[in-house]
Each structure stands twice: as structure tokens, then as C-alpha cells.
Amino acid sequence: MTIDEAQLADELLDRTRAAVPALRERADATAALRQVPPENWDLLRETGALKAIQSTRNGGYGLSMRDHLETVATLAEGCGSTAWCAGVVHAHSWLMSHYPVEAQDDVYGADPDAVVSAVIGARGTAVQTDDGYVLSGFWPFASGNEGAQWLLLGAAVKDGDGNVVDEGDFLVPSSDVVRHDDWFVNGLTGTGSCSVSVENVAVPAHRYLSLPGLIVNGAGPGADAQDGWNHRCAPVPVLCLALTGTAIGIARQAIRDFPSLVRGKTIAYTTDDQFSHPLTHLQAGEAAMLAHEGALILFNCADEIDAAGRAGTTLAFETRARMRLDCAKGVRRCLEAVEILFHASGASGIRTASPLTRAVADLRAINQHGLLNLEMNQELYGRIVLELEPNTPLI
């Protein structure tokens, strides 16, 4: 990391830390609103916390995946839902560096602070036309879309005869999208991850990026226009890792919150002081170490991605497969840590006012994401270790 890059990262982290008290103060209201409130979006823009890995060409900071993780984790110490949305917006801003230059300029030319929401999976259908595509579909889990000016929507691409010829992501302005108010959940409640849909929307050719093409080639058509290095990072590891920083921050904050939740209490149906009891010390130590292990796994993954990106080298296929498991294992460790604290807090832990109630719910929601399915990622990595064919191209 250069001195200028290090200074930029430190300044961003300082501004992000300064935003945590306001995010924490609004965390209950964010959950009740079921979406990130405008005040939080404004704060994210003011701090620059959305632009960590957005390319410098597009008005971002072009920082490392380690800086991305640290920024998102810090936000999560204040509000897990806001941090989740920031993390996925980071991923989408990074992905935009691979779109044709004209599409990058459509988004960031007039507004470097533009927010891009997405459902990257190919849930829709796009039909090729002479000058682009006609897109239709329904996409659930569009986190942060209420604060976005643009969306990336995944779809299978069909030719005029109805044959599927590709799949990828289509860039559409939010004004073309119908938002469905269906986000009624018990974790990451404030992310506003409701469903969106479009019907027969015309998309110009330059607002499309082939996902298989990006994975196979490691770069999209707009990558050569970038003047930094982080666009060279491996696509699937970047997109997986972008889902994990919130878990680190939630676990960190839960460990800080725990002492005040047990201080002055007696263990139920005993005369023992909970705070001074050896069992509590064992629980706190185990939880802190699990959270530490999760963070180590995830930051190590980020460092490996960064090292290859800086050097312009390609990560080995087996390494990329292991990174999917790294991401799943890292967030699972964070969940296991906070569940220990949640159980240790006793009946008071189920109160909605307890910070551990939301922490556990948010971490469970994170662990439910399809790309972070621990068992499936273990199977995937096991197949690669055994030199079998993978069961997914997303590596």
C-alpha cells in the first residue's frame, strides 16, 4: 500500500468511526422503517463510506478489500442493516468498473456518489434486439434499492429464437423499476431488501455485462479504462467477501455490549453473581475467540485477494473455491460467537431492547445468504480438493 493510499484509508476509517454513534442511535428506527433511512444514506455519502472500492476513474477511492472489510465492519458497530447495504453497494460499485465505459459514465459521470443496488443472480429474462435488450423479471432481495439511483438486475439472455445464449447483469435506472413492499423479516430488518420487477424495459447494449465472461476472463470490457489496481481482483471472491464485513462488526459490538448486560445480575435460581462467575468468563473468552477467528479468516481472504490484484496475477482455481468457504466459515464463526453471548444473557436477552437480540437475528440472516451457505461451500471445496468437477461456475 502506498503512503497516499494508506492515508486515504485511515482518513476514511476515521470518518466512518465518527458516524457510528449516529447510526447506533437510529438503529431501532431503521429496523422499524424496514429500510435504510435517508439520514443514514446522507451520512454514508458525507463520510465517503460507500466509495471504498469504487474505482478512482468513477470518483471512488480505489482502496483494498481489507479497507472495504474494515469500513463495513465499522459501520456495523452502529447499525447492521446500514452496514449490509453499504457492503453490497461497495460490491456493485466495484462491478461497475468492468462495465463498458459508457455505462460507467451513465452512472458516475454526473454523480460520483450514485448508489447502485443489485440482484446479481439471473432471475429475469432478456431478449436480444438489434440495438440492445428487452428485460423482464421479478427479483427478490434487492438490498438498499430504495436509496439507489441505479440497479443491476441479473437475467438469462435469449436470442430471437428463444435460445439462452448468455447470462449477466443489466444496468437500469431506478425510475424503470417497480418496488414491491414485501420486506417483512426478522433479521437485517432495516435493509429494505424488498423485491423489484420490470416488464419489457429496453436496455442499451452498453448497459450489459456478461457474468460468465467476467468470471472466465477475470475482467470486463471497461476494465482497461481503470487507472487503479483493485479492478484486477478476482470477481467471485470479491462478490462473496462483500457479504461478510457486517458480520465482523456486529460480533465486535456484541462483545463490547456483553459486560453491561451481565454486570450486577445473579445466575437464575442461584445466589451466584454472574459477572464474577467462572462460567461467564469461559463464555466471554470462547465468544471473543470465535469472533476473532472469523475476522482472521475473512481479513486473510481479503489480503490474498488484494495481493493478487496488486500483482496482476490470477488466483488459483482451488484458492478461489476455498475463498467461498472462507467467507461462509468466517460469518458462521461470528454467529457462533454472538449466540454464546445471547444464551449467556438469559431471559433478558430476548427483549427487543437488548442489543444481542438484533445482533443474533442479523447474523442469522447473513448466514442464510445463498453464497454463504456453509455446507454447500464445504461440499464445493471438498469436490475441488478431491479433483472432482465443481457443481457451480461461480468460483
What does this structure look like?
It is built from 13 helices and seven strands. By secondary structure, it is of the alpha+beta class. A seven-stranded mixed sheet has the order 5-6-2-1-3-4-7. Helix 1 packs parallel to helix 4 (65-76) and helix 11 packs antiparallel against helix 12. The radius of gyration is 21 Å and the shape is globular.
pLDDT average, as an integer? 96
**Poorly predicted tracts of residues:** none
Strand order of the largest sheet: 5-6-2-1-3-4-7
- Main sheet makeup: 7 strands, mixed
Structural class given helices, strands, pairing?
alpha+beta
- Percent helix: 40-55%
CA-to-CA gap between the ends? 27 Å
User: What is the gyration radius calculated from CA atoms?
Assistant: 21 Å
Given the C-alpha coordinates, what overall shape results?
A: globular
List keywords for this structure.
395 residues; globular; seven-stranded mixed β-sheet; alpha+beta; 50% helix
SSE layout:
Elements: H1 3-25, H2 27-33, H3 38-47, H4 65-76, H5 80-96, H6 101-108, E1 116-129, E2 132-139, E3 150-158, E4 164-173, E5 178-180, E6 195-204, E7 208-210, H7 211-217, H8 235-241, H9 245-262, H10 278-311, H11 317-344, H12 355-367, H13 374-385
Parallel strand pairs: 1-3
Antiparallel strand pairs: 1-2, 2-6, 3-4, 4-7, 5-6
Task: Give a quick precis of the structure.
This protein has helices at residues 3-25, 27-33, 38-47, 65-76, 80-96, 101-108, 211-217, 235-241, 245-262, 278-311, 317-344, 355-367, 374-385, and strands spanning 116-129, 132-139, 150-158, 164-173, 178-180, 195-204, 208-210.
